[in-house]
Amino acid sequence: MLTLQCPYCGVDAEETELHAEGEAHLKRFGPGSSDDDFETYLFMRENPKGVHFERWRHSNGCGKFFHAARSTTTLEVFGTYSAQTYEPPQDIKDKITAKYPGWSWREFA
Amino acid sequence: MRRYSAFAIAREAARFHTGWERAWRSPEPKKKYDVIIVGAGGHGLATAFYLGKNFGITNVAIIEKGWLGGGNTGRNTTIIRSNYLQDPSAAIYEKARSLYETMSQDLNYNVMFSPRGVMMLAQTQSEIRGYERTAHANALQGVTTEFIGPERVKELVPIINIDGPRYPVLGALWQARGGTGRHDAVAWGYARACSDMGMDIIQKTEVIGVRQEGGKVTGVDTTKGPIDCDKLGLVVAGNSGDLANMAGFRLPMESVALQALVSEPIKPCMDVVVMANTVHGYMSQSDKGEMVIGGGTDGFNNYTQRGSFHHVEETVRALVETFPIVSRLKMLRQWGGIVDVTGDRSPVIGKTPLGNCFINAGWGTGGFKAIPGGGWATAELIAKGEPGPLSAEFGMDRFIEGRFIDESVAAGVAH
Amino acid sequence: MSNAVSALNSASFEGFATVTETGLRGMITLRGDLSSAKLKAAVKAATGAAIPDVRRVTTGKDGMAAWMSPDELLILCDYASVNDTIATLTAKLTGEHALAVNVSDARAVFRIAGDGAREVLAKLAPVDLSAGAFQAGDFRRSRIAQVAAAFWLNDDNSFELVCFRSVAQYVFDVLKVSAQPGGEVGFL
Amino acid sequence: MSTRLATGGRLLNKGKQLNFTFNGKQLTGFEGDTLASALLANDQMMMGRSFKYHRPRGVVASGAEEPNALMNMGKGGKFEPNQRATTTELFDGLTCASQNHWPSLEFDVGAVNNYMTRFFPAGFYYKTFMFPKFAWKHVFEPIVRQSAGLGQVPKDRDVDTYEHFYAYVDIAVIGGGVAGLQAAKAAALSGAKVLLMEQTAHWGGRAATDGGEVDGKPVADYIADLVAELDAMDNVTMRTRMMGSGVYDHGYVLGYERVNDHTPGNDGPRHRLWRIRAKQIVTATGAIERPLSFAGNDIPGVMLAAAIRDYAADYGVSIGDRTVVVTNNDDAYRTAILLKNAGLEVPVILDARAGGGGALAEEARALGIRIENGKGIAKVKGGKRVTSVAICSQAGEGAVLEEIQCDAVAMSGGWSPVVHLWSHCGGKLTWDDAQAHFRPDATRAPTNQDGIGFVVPAGSANGEMDLAAILNDAHDAGKAASKAAGFNATRKAAPKADAQAEAAMEPVWLMPQGAGPKLRIKAWLDFQNDVKVSDVRLAAQEGYESVEHTKRYTTLGMATDQGKLSNINGLATLAGQLNAPIPAVGTTTFRPPYTPISFGAIAGEARDEVFQPLRRTTIHGYHEDVNAFYEPVGQWRRPYTFPRKGESHADAVKREILQTRDSVGLLDASTLGKIIVKGPDAGKFLDMLYTNMMSNLKPGKCRYGLMCSENGFLSDDGVVARIDEDTFLCHTTTGGAERIHGWMEDWLQCEWWDWKVYTANVTEQYAQVAVVGPNARKVIEKLGGDMDVSKEGLAFMEWKDGKIGDFDARAYRISFSGELSYEIAVPASQGRAFWDALMEAGAEFNIMPYGTEALHVMRAEKGFIMIGDETDGTIIPQDLGLNWAISKKKEDFLGKRAQLRSHMADPNRWKLVGLKTVDGSVIPDGSYAIAAGSNANGQRNTQGRVTSTYYSPTLDCGIAMGLVHNGPDRMGEVIEFNKVDGSTVKAEIVNPVFYDMDGEKQNV
User: Fold this and answer.
1) Which residues have a Cβ under 8 Å from the Cβ of D69 and sit 6 or more positions away?
2) I want to staple D77 with a disulfide (CB 3.0 to 4.6 A). Which of B263, C43, C94, D159 is the partner?
3) pLDDT at position B410, please?
4) Quick check: do D3-115 and D620-670+765-858 share a fold?
5) Which of these, D284, D250, D83, D92, lies nearest to D181 by C-alpha position?
């Protein structure tokens, strides 16, 4: 039963206030993109054993979508941050690096 | 292999059972095998078994990081049914169901297949239509099902509340020859038979790398050193993404927790399996008398084998509503397993971007009931290098083409 | 407006706290840039209230403003004056990207009063409702059992709770279950 | 025999006698008794039958670990099976019965299994019952099921209520024994908010029973002072009868409070499930004594040594007059000493240790008790009650040295910390060789969301067995927890305790250590499930070497006590057989709950009417008044039809349709979603959301639109009205409002966050009524008001604000039935009044309400698709001939790229057509159009399926819509649809618009 801090309203929200919305930082591919890119966008998932960047919505709360960096093996949360970003903030990346030196996730590390 | 029978038990009883031999050997790995299967769960062992039985390929190792049958095979709610809507699903699940019918005899190991009947309750008009559609599809697929009315539901399951104030039972899709089996026994029975064919089941050995050359697989690295092979099968529900990473490709899958629970045992009161998808719960009674209960998956990626308690809560309240007498029973134990869920929630059986490397994964919540069918189809795929009719539609290419096998169209949840 | 009735017509229940549907209330969803001077002035003009801090309510002479999200307030006022309040807001927000819409009839409001009020809510909402954690003027969107709701604490230690009108009966029913005599917890 | 003593019974109120019945017998006990102690006081040692062999079972323990004494409790709506007698507080009027026997506890036919023990070893059922093929299901399985199962099935609906409670604390302390109390105090001194919970009704655990001194006073006094002190602290909450049932991720703890189990007539809930969030959790859950494995250790009268002590000291009950004590440690001597001091006989203490015991042994010896070192029990004799024990050397194979008459045996195999709650969330264990048990490994605690340990074990739960060490450890645990929770830990020192020193225990996993097969087959590990030493050895011999394999093969530890007594003994037996060290074999996983918790408590308040929220429109009261027949649609309940007295549903639907087509009907359409989309980029945004163009819609106009998922599939439809330059109002399907609103917010917040668009879900602000039929205009006009609803004043696909009667209304001139139709929105608070006004105004036209079924039939007659019927999540708009609603001009919209993929662009996809049966009958719902031949899997080929099928009252025949291969090119062709009975029905492929093909009626 997870607790995540909503970066918008500051609430330490338990999971029943939240809705999981899948992998974060997916790049949308629309008309004109290749079949491979489009398949990757819609279906191919990082699914790591380790740190996962993911989307959540504070659905029974302020209604905002946000991102979280969370370990799928220990459920440690390295931070939550705005959904209006293209990559995780540096301080969160640093925190992950401190715990898992050499980690990487798609385009960033 | 010494056959199991009542006579054998009587013989052994006389000498205090000191004469029973090992059900399976515990060998050290050889340097090379024709085929390596990663994962000694139900699907992995069944794949190996049918490689031997149907194709005569017995120089096979099954490598397991824990103990055989210790993943989802030993954690599910043991439901066996084949009343699926789409042709490819109905074909493979019906194949599996029919193999379950004779499995105890085929393996000389009683897997306690109990064709007690499975019903899926219709509690909304759209569920009625969905299940009537399934019944019509099944009639053409050679799967025996029927849509029954609420009175028949009550007759088959006297403890059900068909007049619930919120969601009265309007009918059900009934598969009389669906049922349950003893999950551990399925793994143990296959393991014993595989071992008897000379295959090596290598437990407590983790695959840590996939070796390849020129785009083709050559072997695996394990915690017991490298092992070569001509062909590799990845059959590791819950860990498919991890293995795929080692082999250098990504999958259209995510791993999430699925939870189950049992009550304390009571005397027999329910002789069928009931699934109530509108309210998200299903229940059967085990031979020990426990009510075996399951519900939906968590929404987030997870490898901890611990789910979130509010899903247990949602499932339990659904069952208290559907079966009011369970209110004063007690939850004895809850647990979780990790399932791989694909983009259309149907499995993948097919080739991978790596040559001679094949995959069976993504069964979501439907893995146990498919074990013999999945094993049968995967064995054919590995032996021939190309999918046979049972797995033809289950390749990963479907995600590029937009050709999905979506079972959720008939029911909110697929179990 | 003689035809207008609230969801439960001011139904009430007396348990170890008192639960009352408070009747019709003016409510406006206001979306916009909460940091803009124009919006601040508009809310002031319409209600007399200041822009609330995160998860707080403010009160003015003509109404209240509650923090719903980083770009949304719930404005509360008399039911009869809601159209005027919207008109004021809209006029003051001319030229600004904003949305002010009447949601008075889309919602129901309950008051939970009495010593046990905190506990009645704490049986239904995953929120720390202890006196130290939840104080007068605090506002929280969460859920009540299985539906979304928002509530705040008044200076008189009573809670007011807003939910969607269609589930007013459900919310009233679960509040009644929570407030049943004999159900006092003795924790909060 | 067991009986009440004249002395002892510190938990009893002997002034208050209580009456209860067991198996129909009227018995009495005292306030403070457990059901088990009261039964024992009435010489009722036998309390049940075992699971597999139906052997007689007596109580073996005094607490939550009890595997045998399980009862069918209560009657009717308060009946509950499998209730543990040892944790059930006695109350006046309690009724219970023993389980798993027929016809009676004393004479049980099922006990025949007992005589077949040898033929039923572990896993025997995997090896037989295979022939003939269907014999398992029809012959063997029913026998197995009937003989298993323990408790009876409840018959009646539960009459009690349950609730949840959310609590947030800094530190939750689980266990109110001396360690829990001490830890709570240490934690509370830091200022942290502490919740202390204890599963029984009493504070202090067993420390007071076992004696010792703390800070110079008797431990019982120290506990009383500690309780008073904690009680006085504002930052501490203390709850008895509340079990810490499970520890979950991120500091979540479930507390299972049995509020009224002991006072069943009181107001309030029966159970309360606390959902606690704690920064830190202290597990002071104590330890459980282990049985010893010797032949006949399951015979009633053989009990844990500490339990015998508890019954004597706490409840004033003696288990027998002559109790043999058998042990591998010093603690059991306390039982002998207490019994002797109570005037009972202890004929011998058998100490398996060659070197014997320490100071406690000296004390026992001084009391004149015979002590035999290096000795053990070869065999217990007796049937339903112990009659004697045969003594042997522990080192040998069981040659009998002497037989001693006795009526009770007190056994102790050492103590195992209760590590369950530590382990639930991943806390790891370490093997303690000296005490032969697993204890928490403090370096590998379960971690929380911040990656730090959040569970701290305390006292004997942490492997400390001596009073002084327990208090020290608990004090440290409280300090550690407060520090980890962000407080300054107290500087106060731990109290000084003094208890008798104990000599080291020596592990004994089998007694005697060389016991042969004949003894091993009688040496029980799991009393309830009948698993013996021989079974575990057999499992290992057959290759079930993993502890999980052994557990599952033998059912060891899978009984209702979840192996609290059997796990370590079983594990050690397995390790012995495998010749491996115990820690290398490992443990099974500990899963919640610690002891079983009621489903009622888990479900909480969510039952009956509030099982799930029921959404009601403001017109719902009308539907109730006229007894509408409902269908659930999402959480709404919509009228399916409005049957009149004596009318069938089908007839009612027919009447509603004919009347609407003929004159006028009313539909409560309030459930349709309504979402405001406003801002300078609103048009651009809707162009991305809908497949068709919305930005060029003129204010005052309406347009039907389609929405697809990014995967290309049709997900929702509805009418969009442009309110002004900046503002649109989007209608969604009934189930779609929240989903589509979330979908909009998702794209606005996560992809196009620079677009200036605000949305608001105003679905419930309005009651919406469809006034439908040739007389619709007349009804509206009759209400008066200032709105011009004439053909010119409000043209088809326009909307307008104004007054209808007294009502502020917004009217949309749209039609889903093909008739002249107005959808009118009024403020929800006036919805019922508006509906009533329409009903009144329409009376002269014989107006009547119609339900969702009439709605469905009328739209099908008109060839309109319905989301959820024509679509099922696998359908793209092109399949439904909706290409006209897919913009060719737009570069991009959600779903566009997906629809370009090979399978979706495939001309062979099934396409929408109308279907008319040749014989006028109705095609069954869900039917498939069959094609020649079969596929490679032997499945019959198909060429289409129906999506909607109805009897059309308007056309008086069966009509349907369906998807057919090349359908639109095959007009006039007759194809066959299957029925479940194997027959088929023929239908002609026709245009899907059956009614008013040119749309004249809606346009009048």
Assistant:
1) D35, D36, D39, D47, D48, D57, D58, D59, D60, D84, D85, D86
2) D159
3) 56
4) no
5) D284
**Domains recognised in chain B with CATH numbers:** 31-82+84-109+183-252+344-401 (3.50.50.60), 118-179+255-342 (3.30.9.10)
pLDDT score, position D795: 96
Contacts of C97 in chain D (CB under 8 A): 679-680, 756, 758
Q: Which residues from A are below 8 Å from B when comparing CB atoms? A: 1-2, 15-16, 19-20, 22-23, 35-36, 39-40, 42-49, 52, 54, 70, 72-75
Instruction: Report pTM.
Output: 0.97
- What residues pair up with B256 in beta bridges, in sequence order? B301, B339
Output the DSSP codes for D979-1004. Answer: -TTS-EEEEEEE-S--S-TT--GGG-
Q: Which domains does chain C have, with CATH numbers?
A: 12-23+106-178 (3.30.1360.120), 26-105 (3.30.70.1520)
Buried b (16+ CB within 10 A) or exposed e, D449-483: beeebbbbbbbbbbbbbbbbbbbbbbbbbbbbbbb
Domains of chain A: 3-99 (3.30.2270.10)
Residues 6+ apart with CB under 8 A from B73: B41, B42, B183, B184, B186, B187, B367, B368, B371
Q: What count of other Cβ atoms lies within 10 Å of the Cβ of residue D599? A: 26
Q: Give me the residue from D612, D760, D833 closest to C101, CB to CB.
A: D760
User: At D109, is the secondary structure helix, strand, or coil?
Assistant: helix
DSSP sequence for D681-710 = THHHHHHHHBSS--TTPPTTBEEEEEEE-T
Q: How far apart are CA D729 and CA D108, in angstroms?
A: 73
| A82 part of contact set with chain C, CB < 8 Å | no
- D796-851 pLDDT, tens digit per residue, is 999 999 999 999 999 999 999 999 999 999 999 999 999 999 999 999 999 999 99
Nearest to C123 among D164, D760, D766 (CB): D164
From 3.30.530.80, 1.10.10.60, 1.10.540.10, 2.40.30.110, which CATH number describes the D907-1002 domain?
2.40.30.110
Chain A CB contacts of D753 under 8 Å are: 83-84
Residue contacts between B and D (CB atoms, under 8 Å): 329
Tell me the count of A-D CB pairs closer than 8 A.
Answer: 65
Tokens 């340990």 locate to: D453
| DSSP SS3 for D912 | strand
pLDDT digits over D532-561, tens only?
999 999 999 999 999 999 999 999 999 999
User: D162-285+450-498: CATH homologous superfamily?
Assistant: FAD/NAD(P)-binding domain (3.50.50.60)
Q: Read off the pLDDT of residues C10-36 as tens digits, 9 standing for 90 and up.
A: 999 999 999 999 999 999 999 999 999
Chain A: list its partners (3+ Cβ pairs within 8 Å): B, C, D
Asked if the Cβ–Cβ distance from C99 to D679 is below 8 Å, we say: yes
Element holding B126 (H helix, E strand)? helix B125-141
D1004 CB contacts (<8 Å, ≥6 apart)? D774, D791, D820
Closest CA to D99 of D132, D118, D126, D73: D73
Indicate the SS3 state at residue D454: coil
Residue B303: list chain A partners with CB under 8 A: 49, 72-73
Q: In this structure, how many other beta carbons lie within 10 angstroms of the beta carbon of residue C14? A: 12
Question: Would you call B301 and A2 a contact, using CB atoms and an 8 Å cutoff?
Answer: no
Is residue B357 within 8 A of residue B243, CB to CB? The reply is no
Q: Which of D617, D762, D829 sits opposite C101 (nearest CB)?
A: D762
Place of tokens 């931070």: A79
Those chains having 3 or more beta-carbon pairs within 8 angstroms of chain C are A, D
